[in-house]
Amino acid sequence: MSTASSRKIVVLSGGTAANSLVDVFNGLIAKNNCSLSYIIPISDNGGSSSELIRVFGGPGIGDIRSRLVRLIPPSNAGILHLFNHRLPSSPQAASADFLTLLDLTSPLYLPIPSPQALLIRSILSHLHLEILKRTRSPSSTFNFQSASIGNLFLTGARLFSGSFESAIYLFAIVGGVDESRNAVLPAIVSNFTHHISAGLEDGTVITGQNAISHPSAPTALPESPTAVVHSSTADEPQAPSYPPDVSSHQSIEDATLPGSLPTLRPSFLTASKSHEPPLPSPIHRIWYINPYGQEMQPSPNPNAVSAIRASDAVIYSIGSLYTSLAPILILNGVGEAVERGPRFKVLILNGSLDRETGGYGAVEFVKAVVGCLEESSSRLRGNRSGPSSDDVRALLWERGATDVAAVVRKHVTHLIHIDHPTAPAVGREVLASWGVECVRCYGRKGEDGKMRYDEKGLGQALGVILGKRDGKERGERSRRNTITD
User: Is-contact 422 444, C-beta < 8 A?
Assistant: First the structure.
């Protein structure tokens, strides 16, 4: 068993939702004297990241940036505010605002020490030079609308160093993030863009994370089409069709390879995360695609896989199940690392459902997590003559109860959920038959009416599961905030 100083925890998550739990995870680090690594996907192609991808290519960096910003200590409030700042929603005003960052007249620099300010200005100046080199007015110009300064800095640092990992390191150093306690690891290390597709149970295929999770119209185009989808069956293959405003982006010279799927070319700066239309059918499977829409299996970040294998606990955090967690879980080697590495494998159930998980309960969440990890493990075992990726999940749940429980326990040992009528149903009897221990937490209702975890209660629940190193792990928990089923 690991000592207190070497104890390691890994959190798998996306960006926005899990950012609300960073204080909980920081408390876990302090109480257990451990280190924590966040593993985050790079497949987001919406928001201001989409414009950077259109012009420069490269990974979707929005979730990486948001977690790094969230980890900047209060003592560096000036840099935190700068990296968290977004330029105006007007493209012209945004461009003018960006220029003040280059000539050091921006008031955002005032609380930042001169050495850091000059370094940040240098990286942004390099990015500006790269933008000018790619400008082909009027057909292709960079749109600064609502751009995140943190995203611009990360991209500039990546282009300057030629390394995504180096850019993350520089961001952390400038922000004062203690990487010995809080490491942020991309699920894939690459200077190229990685997109995902979702296959629905009715045969529909949706291409691109933005269209799966937060469908929106391409930026600066007059029409507002719904999410672009195409369907195909084994008997009647159909060529995908695209709205005219999406296809028109093919005439613009950018970083997208010729012949790439038209739906992957535009920017989606106005993606909405509310009032999303429901999916026409439940999601069956997620996979990575190349720019031409063909399925591919990218290599995972070896440091991420090593972190999982060396950890005492892996936590599947709240957020989008299929566009935040699944892109991590399906990578080759992740399933095997989860199976053989951590003792505790904890799923924190979302307090509410979204477009990706309409009608889901805890049982369906567990099935999705286990299915993704089993698909990953199946590929690593080289089971080329066995079931296809599409069949892995179906075959898994057709096994006998004992076999299913054994497989589930390899990947999920505990589930934490909010005890509230509006939260997703839990299905305790089914989970208990699989050997998954459930821990209830009280929650609170947010401004949007959705249930949120009580931070103190969630921290205590994680403490109950993971235990402390002073022998008091069970004696100090509060039954007021956590209840083991």
Answer: no
Determine if the peptide bond prior to 113 is cis (ω within 30°): no
C-alpha distances (whole Å) from 40 to each of 35, 197, 298, 319, 428 are 16, 18, 15, 11, 29
Q: Which residues contact 122 (CB under 8 A, 6 or more apart)?
A: none
pTM reported for the whole predicted model: 0.88
Distance in angstroms (rounded) separating the CA atoms of residues 348 and 316: 6
User: Which 8-state DSSP code applies to residue 296?
Assistant: E
**Cβ within 8 Å of residue 120, ≥6 positions away:** 79, 82, 101, 112, 153, 174
The structure tokens listed for 206 are 């949706």
CA torsion through residues 283, 231, 272, 373, sign: positive
98-116: per-residue pLDDT in tens? 999 999 999 999 999 999 9
Sheet holding 295-296, edge to edge: 229-231, 204-207, 195-200, 283-289, 295-296
State how far the Cα of 449 lies from the Cα of 446, in Å rounded to an integer: 5
Rounded Cα–Cα distance for residues 154 and 217 (Å):
26
